[in-house]
Predict the structure of N-acetylcitrulline deacetylase.
Amino acid sequence: MNTSLETTLGFLEALIRFDTRNGTGDEPACVDWLAERLGTFNPDKLIVDRVSRSRGKSDSAYVLAIWGQPDLILNVHIDTVPSGEGWLADPLIMRRGDDRVTGLGACDIKGAAACILSALSRGEAKNLAVLFSGDEEQGSEIMPAIISAGHLNAVKAAIVCEPTGGKVGKRHRGMLAVQADFHGPGGHSSLADEIDAPLLKAARLASKIGEYGEANRTVGVDPFKGLCTNIGDIKSDGAYNVIPTSASLWVSMRPPPGVKVQTIESAIYDMAQGMDAELDTLVAFEAFETLDVDYFKGFFQGIDFIDLPYWTEAAMMSEFGINTVVFGPGYIEQAHKPEEWVSLEQLEKATQFFETVIGSEREQRRAL
């Protein structure tokens, strides 16, 4: 094993030990550790900040390191999904295998953070920014705070790290999730013909939304046809002989590039008119498309540019006007599941890529 990869694995092992499970973990502790590491690479500016989150979640944080006058930013989110059941060992202890390492966040996407730290340890960063941020997996409240603070105003291009299998993501769907709550007096089911029925209203709205999704299956262009309409959950406090006092419906859609999320959101709200529903938009994220693919072809010579099946915070940077692509080690098929892993080969290649990018002048990067 070469020294560069061994350094990457050392950083990854340390990162996995931090419990950054979104909503319950300690993301600021991981960010503080990353700030210490980044400080050893002599950035011209180091910004560390905490950001409060809604819906009762604990604070998250970010660290931004700046060298020179950056035209390029590398971004990695440091939070993970919950570990769930099915792990064969402690998910926060990295395990090494012959061709892979296993641990929570190894693939999505602490592996990329380790690659960048390893690359920084072996070269001198020039006109570059590195951003490690939390709260991507559920809510994405940190990136808007970073953008609104003006930290990215001078940045022209970004590489947002996600597990793309070492390929370059140039486009993906948006994301919309809405919760609808219904209330009524409740009662014995023998009075069902007379008493307001919250669960029935939730089911009727779900049916309307499902029909809307069916009617829009040809919206968009390949490979993004349709809205990916999902009725995620309908629940109540009722039973077969109890009329519920409340019911909740969770729905989501993933609009294709070219379809505004606000258009779909308005359609859902219109469908709920007259149903006494309390609506709450949980997330409303636009689709993503790289503003100028040609700009990045020098960075990624010989690497395929692909469409992605999942949403990323590249959409937020692109909407802000930053030319953005998505890239990272690992395959999405290995993420968000027990025994999450990333291959040593993917980590090695990503480390080499970041070493080249970090050590290059801005004029050289586009001609790599």
